[in-house]
Every structure is written in structure tokens, then in C-alpha cells.
Amino acid sequence: MTKVDSHHHLWPADVIGRQDWRPAEDEVLRRAFDVAEYHAALDAAALDGSILMQSVDAMDENQRLADYAAASERVLGWVGFADLPDPARALGDIGALVRMRGVPGGDKLVGLRCLVGSDPMSWTAEASGIAALQRAADEALVWDTVPITDAQTDAVAAVAQRLPHLRIVVDHLASPPMTDDAFGAWRDRLQRLAAHPNVAVKLSVGVAVLQRWERWDAAALRPYVQTAIELFGARRSMLASNWPVVLLRASHAQAWSGVLEALGDMDVQDRARVEGGTALDWYGVTRS
Prior knowledge:
Elements: E1 4-8, H1 35-44, E2 49-53, H2 60-71, E3 75-81, H3 90-99, E4 109-113, H4 127-138, E5 142-145, H5 150-162, E6 168-170, H6 180-194, E7 199-203, H7 207-212, H8 218-232, E8 237-239, H9 252-263, H10 268-283
Parallel strand pairs: 1-2, 2-3, 3-4, 4-5, 5-6, 6-7, 7-8
């Protein structure tokens, strides 16, 4: 059984000022995170490989990701950047990404994304936006995204319906609120996404949740993880660490074991899918 971390980052120190998602107080992240350190994290959690994710909304990020992938056989695939909301650039960015399959590490390109935060996603209903996502689907590229509002959720669901051959991965449990009074609304959003068979979900937490917590809270995570599995099933759910961002509140091993515990009792085959099989299948990467 191959065990895969479906979402982590690597970056050099010189991009820190260009990561717009970073919280104001993040001293623990204000340094480089490289392949050797991540291999140690994989070893500590007994994982075989991973999916590397972009962290900078810029085209030069893609060369960095390809270089990391070329340097590590344990990077099974990488998700690069394309400026999807910009109609004048989106198709060109995807074309440039696809051409990178000819450079060292570029053969591991498996997807694309851009950081949307709470911005409107009206571009997904425009002809240029659909054309870009259509090109992604044609090139077998997964679209990773984090819809956190009702409008964003509806936009992603509409794309899933319009482009059923486009594989979509919702990162970080769609940023759950982690409060009892908002649980129902979050579940409704997730259910609308799960209704589409070409949408999968990552069982991880993003920077917004980490900022709300004073410390790592595996117990608080459990109902969200189990709800996601209930809605998506094991074949569309995948474990992820979000390392090194998760270091704001936990080590890689602590976060990984916390999500594992949140899975609860599962069929052996379903657990194998969530721990690695789903990521391998969804991103179309080779089993090791």
C-alpha cells in the first residue's frame, strides 16, 4: 500500500514576501523549506510520497516546483500556478504549464490552481474561464481550489456540472468554520460539492483554521473529517498535511496522526484509499 501526503509545500527564502496568504505573525514559516527536510517529515510519518503544491501566485513558481520534483523521487506530482481569473492570461498560462512537461521534473505536472481567498469567482461562468478549465481537463490537469463562501461553492459546483471530465479537488475541507453554529452551513456547502462525482476533497486544514486555533485540536477536527468522508466516500477523500503551514500549530507527524485518528473505524480497503490510493488515482500518478 502506497501512503501519500496529497498536499504540501516547499519554498526558498526569497519568495516569503510574495506569499499573500501568510498571516501577519508567522515567524515559524519565515525560512526556506526544502526537499531534505520534507523527506525527514515523510520518514517520521512512514509515508511513501507526496503531491507538491504551489504557494506563490506567479509563473516563476512553476519552475521552482519542477526543480523540486526533479530533485525528489518522492514528489509524485506537482500542482502549479495559472492565473485563471485573468481572461487575457489564463489560456496562455496553461499552455506554458503544459510545455513544462518537457523540462526535468515537468513530467510530474498533475494540476493547477490559483489562490482565491474570499474573492468572487465570477470568472468561472465566463467563456474565457470555462475555456481555460476546459483546456486543463483536456490536458488531464486537476483543478485544486478552496471554496469558502456560498457563492464560491456554487461557482465550483457549476463548473463541475458543466465540465464533468474536469477533475476538481477541494483543498483543506473547504475551510470549515470550526464552530457549532456554523457547522450546518459548512456541511450544506460540502454536500453541494459532493453531489458531483468529479469533485474530491482533501482531509486537511488551511491557514484560516490554524489561525483560529490556539493549539492543534485533533478532537475538533474529527466531526469535519468524518462528515467529509460520509459525503464524498473513501474514493474521493484523501489525507493531506499542508506542511509546512501546519507547523503554525503542529508538527507534520502530529497533524498526520491527528487526521488518521479522526478517520475512526474504516474498512481496510477504504482506509488504504484515503491514505494514498485516492490521491494516486485522482492525480493520475504512478504507484510506487
